[in-house]
Amino acid sequence: MTDLASTRKPWLLGLTAVAFLVAVLAGLALLGGQSLPERTGPPVEEIAVEHTVLESGTIALTVRNTGPDPVAIAQIFVNDAYVDFTGPTEPIGRLSSAQLRLDYPWQDGQPYLISMLTSTGLVIEHEIPAAVTTPEANASFFGLMALLGTYVGIIPVVLGMLFLPVMRAAGGRVVRVLLAATVGLLVFLAWEGTREGFELADRDGGAFGGTALVVLGAGLAFLGLTAVDRWLRHRRQRSAAQGRTGVRLALMIALGIGLHNLGEGLAIGSAYAIGELALGTFLVIGFTIQNTTEGLAVVAPLTERRPSLLVLLGLGLLAGAPAIAGTVLGATVNNAELSALLLGVGVGAIIQVIVQITPSLREPDSREFSGSTLGGIAVGLLVMYATGLLVAG
Fold first, then answer.
1. Which domain holds residue 312?
2. Are 318 and 254 a contacting pair, CB within 8 Å?
3. Model-level pTM?
4. Is the separation of the CB atoms in 351 and 246 below 8 Å?
């Protein structure tokens, strides 16, 4: 009875402290604001364009108020020409969104500068680099997105995994070099995801955190994958360490790359939905070549173990299939905040996998890295950079 009481006491103290803190903050929110003087000067108006849809004779903009004050759109100009538009009759409140539909006979492939004039005279601009008709979200469109996700996700990963017999024939030093190249590959992917996430956050108005969403997604993914790894390690701690560790590490690599491909597919689907991605054969081949190295990374820890074909298939789907979900989600939702968050998730997952692989790169009975291992890291970076040039733009 005494043990139960002593266990409950810290919880009661904690709940009491939290309740007191909530009460104090509520009091400050209710009473403190009334004691402050009213703000002087013009209102702070900020509008972010979250989505653009171009149809025949119309341009539809989904905008969100990212500033502290309500915003009323009074007039809209396209390339300095006044246009009629329909929109909300009331000012757009903080963090609220609205759709503005412009009556304008735009021409395919032409650039347009949209200037929104607020009721206070502030001009907020949005640029359309090249106008193209927004694809209709129907069954064939979703099928195309799924096919694109298969091209850039599953197929290249499986192709890379086919090199497992060649890697298995190599010695231990060669395996360490391949794992080092995997680290270089993952470092490049982490940098690429971070850069894309921050670019999306800069494009967004920051209503829901901007760059903080990328950091939040990375932190949550890192902690989540760390917990998954601890769980897998606990389950297999009584098994043969060498073989089991290889499968566990391959699983973590596949999961990390899968989360990265989810973010990559999201970016591809979003770009296609707004007409910024041309689905050419060269582009598909470029994605395939770049992502084939991800399949090599997945099977690199399996050179000293012979997993079943079912296990290999599962690893390939885990690493590549999220690209399908990403392309479909990106083309449908096309939300900058969600894209930034998921790109951050991919970055955090990859960083956690790098932490997992790094101890395997050390020389036997040593805490140092050999020159060949460091060279493998450099090779991984250079390969990803070179293949990334094929899909640039």
1. 139-391
2. yes
3. 0.64
4. no
